[in-house]
Amino acid sequence: MPAAFPKIPAIQFEGPKSRNPFAFKHYNATELVEGKTMKDHFRFSVVYWHTMCGTGSDMFGWGTWDRPWDRSTKDNSIERAKRRVPVFFEFCEKLGAPFYAWHDRDVAPHGKTLRESNRYLDTIARLLKEHQKASGVRLLWGTAQNFVHPRYMHGAATSCNADAFAFAAAQVKRALDLTHELNGEGYVFWGGREGYSSLLNTDLKREMDHLGAFMHMAVDYKKKIGFRGPFYIEPKPKEPTKHQYDSDAAACLNFLREYELLNHFKLNLETNHATLAGHSMQHELEVAGAAGALGSIDANMGDLFLGWDTDQFPTDLYLTAQCMLTILKHGGLTTGGTNFDAKLRRESIEPEDLFHAHIAGMDTFARGLKIAAAIRKDGRLGEFVKNRYRSWDSGIGKQIEQGKVGFRELEAYALKLGEVSTNESGRQEYLENLFNEFI
Ligand code: XUL
Ligand code: CO
Prior knowledge:
By secondary structure, the protein is α/β, with parallel strands linked by helices. About 45% of the residues lie in helices and about 10% in strands. The protein has an eight-stranded parallel beta barrel with strand order 5-6-7-8-10-12-13-14, surrounded by four helices. A two-stranded parallel ribbon has the order 1-2.
């Protein structure tokens, strides 16, 4: 098959002065930051669904992207699925992305039966394996698409229909087998339609119990096949349902604790999902980090004026600097990665736009990393926070943290003290300006 991107060379690092749009200005894979290469900090990953299967359609209009490699084949055909594999790997190789991610039903088409779908998936799996081997591009995570087909209209693991639950289990089983076979680093559960549109027709407790049972079955199966990669839950508060059970990091952690699953899961956090939940991405990262559950990120951003899940490429320096500050604080990404769950704008219609978008995302994250590392090296921000809590390092604060005092002792202490007179300024504006020094 001829090259899909014949005019585009392998993207190289040329430095900030370069004016070449097909070069990195800031992402330099081998450059060390805090003793680790940029390649290892980020573990950048390209998603199959938006990159190969996106069409540019939205709720109001048909697709706008006419991909040359799709022209000779029919929608949802195995021939089209086969043709897309080499195109995808050519893209990842030229971009220098070390990882990729898929849903079962975006690499391979839906069959008329589960058996036929499985056969399609096996055919494509062989191709993916060959291309992974030839290119060195690795699988960051796999996942099952349990939300597009009408059988999942009421949800999958949380459906009112037990047959849909069974079907979803069968699908996840195969997706796990395949992730394992392709040496995937992890496996993601995003609760596509695990939620409700109306409480009038919903038994919330029963649905949550079913979701817990489903996850335990997945953990059991993972052990059975010897898959060692982590499981991740990806929070999202709404879309497509009005309330998704995995609504944000805190809700996911609560679910995992309640159903005794926390040892088996970490979180895969996505920026646009965080903002839909009314949180910043940094908030979600901090919440996950505090629970030791910061696993991986779906790197994108939303548009506050549109308000829905626009999945734009991350080009906001404040965002990436804040993300990297928190990620570095919690020890960095290990099995996870920086996965571009992001899509081109409807008006960005040419294949080369895929390169511009990913280069932009990678460069913005590289700058974010350098900014975060510089803030950490400077030390003023870290020192400010440390100093702000110094009352806990000795005296009564230390005794509280050590569990040595209770309400009685604290009452006696407070009576003696008379009043809290030592409050200091939070200095928010000073710190925001300090942060800006490094942008
Ligand atoms: C949907 C979304 C998914 C998950 C994987 O909003 O983010 O693509 O990342 O199922
Ligand atoms: Co995602």
